[in-house]
Amino acid sequence: MVWPGLASYTTSKNVDYRLVRNQNNPKSTNDSRLHIFGHKGTSNTKLSPPFFTEAQLTSVFRRFDGNRDGRLSRQELRSAFNSLGSRFPTYRAFAALHQADQNGDGYISEDEMDDLIHYALSCGYHVQ
Question: How many CB atoms lie within 10 A of CB 45?
Fold first, then answer.
C-alpha cells in the first residue's frame, strides 16, 4: 500500500524529515530546502582537538619510565596509555609489546621506542 503524497518525499537516510514535511507549503516559516546532515545549517562545526605528535608521545612514554632504567614494562605502558585516554589501556600495552618488542624480552627499550611511537600514532590519540 502506498500512502497518498508519500512519493513526493525523499527517502534518503540522511535527510531531516522535519524539514521535508514542509517543503510543499510555500507559506511555511521553516526553510523549505532539504536539510542534509553535515552540510549547511548543521551544528557539526566543532573542531576536534589535535592529535599527539611524535615528540609529545615520546615525552609521555619517557615520563612513565618509573624506575629510570630506560625500558618500559607492561605496567608502565598500561599507565602511559591510560594517561593518553585509552579506553582499554591493558590491551593497548599488550598490543604495543607485541608490535614493538623486537627481541622478545617483555620490555620496550630505547632501540624499540620508534616502533612504539608509530604504534601509538596509529591509535590516533588526541591532546586532551
Answer: 5
Domain ranges across the chain: 54-123
Burial 59-73 (b: 16+ CB within 10 A, else e): ebbeebeeeeeebbb
- Residue 30 pLDDT greater than 60, yes or no: no
Q: How many helices (H) and strands (E) does the chain have?
A: 5, 0
Architecture of domain 54-123 in this structure = Orthogonal Bundle (1.10)
CA distances in angstroms from 108 to 8, 38, 43, 50, 78, listed in the order given: 62, 42, 43, 26, 12
- pLDDT by residue (tens digit) across 13-23? 544 444 444 45
Q: Are 96 and 120 in contact (CB under 8 A)?
A: yes
Q: What is the pLDDT of residues 38-93, one digit of tens each?
A: 444 444 556 788 999 999 999 999 999 999 999 999 999 999 999 999 999 999 99
